Predict the 3D structure of the following.
Amino acid sequence: MTFEEKLKQCPAAEIWQEYCGFLDLTLPEYMQIQNRLVMEQVSLMAACPLGQRLFKNGVPRNVEEFRTLVPLTKFEDYADVLLPQREEMLPAKPVVWLHTTWEGGDFPSKRAPYTESMLEAYTRNILAAMILSTSKGRGHFHVRPGARVLYSLAPMPYATGMFPDLIRPQIRLRFMPSVREARKMSFGQQTRLGYKLAVKHGMNLFFGMSSVLYGATRNLDSLAGGGGGGSLSLLWGMSPRMLVRLLSALYRCRRDGTHLRPRDLFKLDGFVCVGTDTALYKNELAEAWGIRPLELAGGTEPSCMGTETWSKNGLVFFPDACFYEFIPEHEYLRELEDPAYTPRTYLMDELVAGQKYELVITVLKGGAFLRYRVGDIYRCLRLRNPEDKLDLPQFEYVDRIPTVIDIAGFTRITKREIEKVITLSRLPIGHWFAVKEYDADGHSYLDLYAELDSDDPGAASLSRQILQEHLSIYFRSYDGDYKDLKRLLGMDPLRVTILKSGTVDAYTARTGRRVPPVGAPREIVLDILHMQGPAEEGGEDR
Amino acid sequence: MTLNERLFIIVPLLSLLCNLFLFLTALSTKKDRLVYAFIALLGAFTMWSGGSLFMRLQLAPGSPFWYMVSITGIFLVPFLVYNFIYRFTATKAPFSHIVQGAIWLVILLLNAGNVFITDPHMVTVGHETRFEYGVSPLVAIPILMAVYTLLASWRLAYKSCRNGQTDIAQFRPMLVGVAVMFACTVSAVLPQMVSLPVDTFSCMVNACCLYYMLYRRRLVPLRSFASNGPVFAIALICASVLLVSCYRAADAFYARYFANFMPYKTIVFSVAVSVLTVLLFCLVRRLMTAILLKGAEQQNEELRRFSTDVNKTLSMNALLQLYRDYLQHTMPGYTARIFVLDSRTGCYEMRDATEMSVACRDSFAADDPLMVWLKSRGCCSQYAEFTRSRYFRALWQKEKDRLDQMRVELLLPVMSGEEMTALTLFSRQDTAARRALSQDRLSMLDSVAAVLAIALNNASLYEALRKKAQFDPLTGLYNRSYFQEVLQRDFDLARHDQLTVLIISFDDFRLYNELYGAAEGDRILKRFANALRVLVGSRGTVARYSGKEFVISFPFCAPDTATDCAEQARQWLRREVVGSGQTTRRFLTFCAGISSYPTCARSVEELLTYAGMAVYSAKNSGKNRVCLYTPEPEDTRIAKSYASKRALADSCSSTIFALTAAIDAKDHYTFSHSQHVAEYAAALARAAGLDAEHIEIVRQAGLLHDIGKIGTPETILSKTGRLTAEEYDVIKQHVEDSISMIRYLPSMDYVIPSVLGHHERWDGQGYPRGIAGEQIPIGARCLCLADSFDAMVSRRSYKDALSVDRALQEIEDNLGSQFDPRLGKLFIDLVRSGKIQVHADAAPEPSSEPAR
């Protein structure tokens, strides 16, 4: 029975139970499911060459052994199998391979296999998220077949590109633009056309990246009409209902002297957004759209692994997508300073509320990744939520791990990339380090602290502005995602701070601490700036 | 009467009857607020139809009255529909409910005062007679109110569906009813339809639809049609119809043939109608029962029979077989797989199936999500419900595939308290029709499970008790008595092959217990038992034979297998005891004896005896060894044994002499009595054909037979007069005393049977055990003859010596009563032939005092 048939034939309580029943689990019940499924994964892995390679210390017989015997892994551990798509090495036959950017890797992209069982769970979890996005309380939801969906996510073979393919066999939704059309377009074109269609015909559901959505929200006028003749063409073919809404909204805006906001035009049933910076945009989006967005957690390797509930206040991880382990902040920071150190992991029932954790996943149901460090940091918001009568921990996405600088969920910049850009730019930069900072509007940017080579005769002529523009050009040419940032969101996320020559060496000599090239702790940055003293006259803007 | 006029009578009549019938049926069901709401609505429909009909028929008290009944019914319908939906959806809006009720009450009162519609008056157009009404403009009020109330009902139903409280499918019959009512109302506008009774027709259809709605909700079962009220209504209606249709003919018939009884016509007709009604009532009830209750009664009968059958057995297998047969019979088209909780493994093991082709090799772990879910449900459930539960997420893919492959549709747990002791999985067969099981059938399955739960509980308790009786509580191995059953079974199985028995006995285990404590002794016994279980595996059966002894049966195995096993056990014990990590070095060994069928034993008893003898032999050969019993040539064995016994007796001769001398010293009349008895008994044993070893035993027994008399007071021994009963009891005690003393003589316990039985009598009147005939050991019978003879021919304190002939005569007289007839005759012959040389005292005059 498809989801649509269930909507027609089954009571809402049954549908809720099937898709969102996991929210009724107690933590011990949740852990039981996790433990059971991870042992299934172990048994599958034990029978395949990839698993045998990872189980070189012996096949685990229980979860404790699994966490002791199997090392923490990164994509490098799988690259030789997954990049050439060697299916014979895998625990189960994949039906689809998804791609994503491999930040700091030897190859531009990572690949992740998806088995049939994984897709089954993925579909169920996406539908659960869709139900929850329209719900206002436990058991109450409003999903209707034929709903119009504005879909603004990355296309296949990225993980979010799977959404329409998974949903379409289950329920009849009208994607704007249609999936077939969207696949022929660039991401930007797809978003623009989607908005046009939404303004013309209305929209019930929204699936999109929060940063794109934020940009679109701010530029609704331009996206919808494009001005002038565009407006006329927009009015032509507009549904009467939307025309009435548009005209009344325009009237109200003119009367009150405000901008046109999406909430004036659309009455959404559900609003789903993904992306690493969602937390930053959430309040503004809720204000603009009149409905609080539901955030999803996921990625190419873990698939759709978490969702918020009806209160849209914290993620809950699905029990059957991955087996979750968590590295506490002090452990991963210790590893950052001492790369030989192996951090300890904790399970879902061992967490502390308010603590930040790096996520480690084991993809269940025949996935390829065991104890895999995705590179995401989550904060455990609470261990249970009495208001929502939820007995499971809830999380919020914090950021990528310190060695990766994620900007607006579009691009992930690593040490390797910055080195490459500096080399290509041939700028006389000596020591440097980069950190992620946020501007007054709460938007992230990359702050590159650089020492110019004092021996280089041209160094004196380089101002901060020149450096910034120069490096920005190379970033855009080297990293397509970085380029999209500028193109789609109109932002340049690079800022350069020039340090006095020898500052980094002096800091290391004085404190004995190494300055990490990417993700240096805030106190190190402040110490270095203090050591340098007040900026010289025009020191920053030479 | 025109067709239209007829229709105006027939349709309201049908509607009235239908509503009345449903009304009575609903009255006979279990009532709640919803059923009351339905009854009220049916009442309104009945008023509507009945009023319309009786108005048309112009029955008393007259058209205005029936018009008022009908119009009240019509005005009540909107609110009662609302009330019905309100109850059906279990909505909580009492304010709106009460306000609407109040408004409709006011409308009804106003209507009673003819505010909206005036009384009808009859109009005849052509051949047709119609009722025409005068309508006031105020009639818009009840019409608008009716529209509002019906829309409010619609809203309640919609909200209930949208919130998932009620399934839309449940409202389908109502939707049909509404559609018919709407169609009828619209069609009434058409000139062709004006003269048709469409309103009462829609009233009848609506009543049926609503009844069906309640039936689907299982609030009014169909079988309530077969209750007395509706059946009587049908009988009454049929009788009335018959009376009306046949009255004229019956009247003519009566007038023609019973003209003389005309004054009694009314009585005769009344009685006839009453009898007819009763007959029809019986007929209709039987018919309704056959149609509606037969299935249920059959189900109940099957359940009752199953319940009786399962209560008669305590065997788990028999129970499961009964259950399987029951399911085969009552669930055609389904394959049932029966799983029972195995308390040892903690898994639900498949024990039976209703299809021969289904292999019973499946099992579910107790913590399997399906089992956990089913336990939490505790009643018959659909598999589809499980797939929608959160437990389903925990299933492994191969578990899902397995259940899909089984095509499980239904699951029936068997609950015993909070525990699920068994479950049945039902899967639909390919050929079966795809029809959902009725709720009655599911309830019946739950009842079956409840009956089975009690029976299974009893069976498992019985099984547990039986097992408890089979196992040794310390080691968990079989105990001795059950092992003998097992060995007999093995023997029967291996009768044409071979069977080996190994007995293992710890050396000096009492010493080990004393040195290291009983707890340590128990520990090593348990560990050793486990080790043996592992070593033997499926090759044989291990049991604890006695305190420190274990026995193992190896069917179809040669003695080599037992030898290997014993050697492995020895190595294990060495590692366990020596390598136990204790500061003091411990030491424990065992002897093992092996016997084998058919090479050296011919029966189960011989297998155990010979294995025991092999253990004994191993113990005598220095302990800590394995000894295989080998049958030696008889003469060699006897010679060896005789030599050993003779040597033993020689080594103990000084002790024996000292003891017998002590008795002789106490009772000088019995001087040399023991020597003489030993001599006579040995001669008799030899003549009886016993082997040298046995003769030596008899001889030694003769020497020691009265050793217990050391403890007998001299006054009794040397008493000259007749002994009192108490004194005789003291004398009799000497047999037990002899045994107690012999126990202390090193390794001379083999003489005990002969000594113990030397005062037993052939007829069973002897002491101490009162055994008779061949039960008395042959050595004891020899001693008895020799002892009596020597006592008779010797002088005692209480008697003189008898002559030899007199003594032999005495023996002859007591053959078959006191003495073994065969041995007695032989003894007499031996004495008379001089082969036994008699040591007799001089015999002055015979006396027949028996030996003491």
Observations:
- Chain A touches chain B at residues 9-18, 21-22, 24-25, 29, 32-33, 36-37, 40, 117, 139-140, 319-320, 365-366 (CB under 8 Å).
- The domain at 405-532 of chain A is CATH 3.30.300.30 (GMP Synthetase; Chain A, domain 3).
- Chain A has three domains: 21-114+313-400, 144-268, 405-532.
